[in-house]
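Q: Got one fold?
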Amino acid sequence: MRAISLRAKKHNPIALQVYPAYNRRCALCGWQATEETISFRGKIQYAHGNEIHHITPIREGGTDDWQNVILLCPNHHKQADMGLITQEELRANTRPYEMTEEQIMDARAAVADTITSLIL
């Protein structure tokens, strides 16, 4: 349980970088549900509909760097999990997501503004 908690803390900064790198769209098909954020069960979250996928799972020694992380729609994510999309195909579609500290701060501010507008 502790490992899941630690991964959740690491995931948010990664999400701040990965979502913009892929323009919030699936790397394979370009699908995106919406540009909006939503409130679900009291939590504010992206409604883009896409998910971060580790090409080589963390439990198998995968990392959180751009060569191992890709943004996928739910359909492609499930296909990747089932091995129907090869790791090589996924890696061929990855994009670098390194951001400057200023870009990270801008992304955080944009998220905070969106959350504030939803609350008020």
Notes: Residues 51 and 114 are 20 Å apart (CA to CA). Confidence is low (pLDDT under 50) at residues 1-10.
